[in-house]
Amino acid sequence: MSILQTLILFSLLLSASHAAVQDFCVADLMGPQSPSGYLCKKESAVTVNDFIFSGLGVPGNTTNLIKAAVTTAFVGQLPGLNGLGISLARLDLAPGGVIPIHTHPGGSEVLIVLQGSICAGFISSANNVYFKNLNKGDSMVFPQGLLHFQVNAAKGPSIAIVSFSSPSPGLQIVDFALFGNNLPSALVEAITFLDDAQVKKLKALLGGTG
């Protein structure tokens, strides 16, 4: 047997050893969560409802500061996603609505516009910016961990569905991370180059203290 044949055989054996041994692992939401997901619910307790979520058909409430709403179908809402490496969400953006610049540390994202027009973009680690107005039927991908945003570019409401490469992709919104907590204003001013009045105004707006 040649070296190449040996390597191919070894690769096949290794793949087989990691093959799935069960059809699914519905999340036991009452149990602990680890980086690899939730523990599996006993199969005898699994029902069809563990694989169904109807919330994406309901418009989100956009009467808020950002004039936008995100309805998630993550593992917490759809336990059947556990271990499958996928999830979904619905974006509703009223006129002037915005999903502020944010990141998903646990997964990449794909967006498809269902209604209206959305200006969407992301910033690479080299600080290059990629953005464009997307219309109905257009899609855009946002690589894992990179800062990105969505802004309603239409006169009426815009709607999009997004998918993620994780059942729990995580979320950190930059504005709230800087101004929506108790990080002392002096530190925020030092790391953002904003003056004291601007920082205190943003903290008051976003619920921060300090």
Describe the structure.
Its main location: secreted. One of its GO terms (cellular component) is extracellular matrix. GO terms for molecular function: manganese ion binding. Keywords: Apoplast, Disulfide bond, Glycoprotein, Manganese, Metal-binding, Secreted, Signal. It comes from Rhodamnia argentea. With 210 residues, this protein is α+β, with helices and mostly antiparallel strands. It folds into 2 domains: 131 residues, Jelly Rolls (Sandwich), CATH 2.60.120.10; 30 residues, no CATH class. The protein is built from 4 helices and 12 strands; from the N terminus they run αββββββββββββααα. Strands 3-4-11-6-9 form a 5-stranded antiparallel β-sheet, with no helix packed on it. Strands 8-7-10-5-12 form a 5-stranded antiparallel β-sheet. The chain has a two-stranded antiparallel sheet with strand order 1-2. The longest helix is centred in the first third of the chain and has 15 residues. The chain is globular.
Strand and helix map with partners:
Elements: H1 3-17, E1 33-34, E2 37-38, E3 68-73, E4 87-93, E5 98-103, E6 109-115, E7 117-123, E8 129-135, E9 139-142, E10 147-152, E11 158-164, E12 172-173, H2 174-179, H3 185-192, H4 196-206
Antiparallel strand pairs: 1-2, 3-4, 4-11, 5-10, 5-12, 6-9, 6-11, 7-8, 7-10
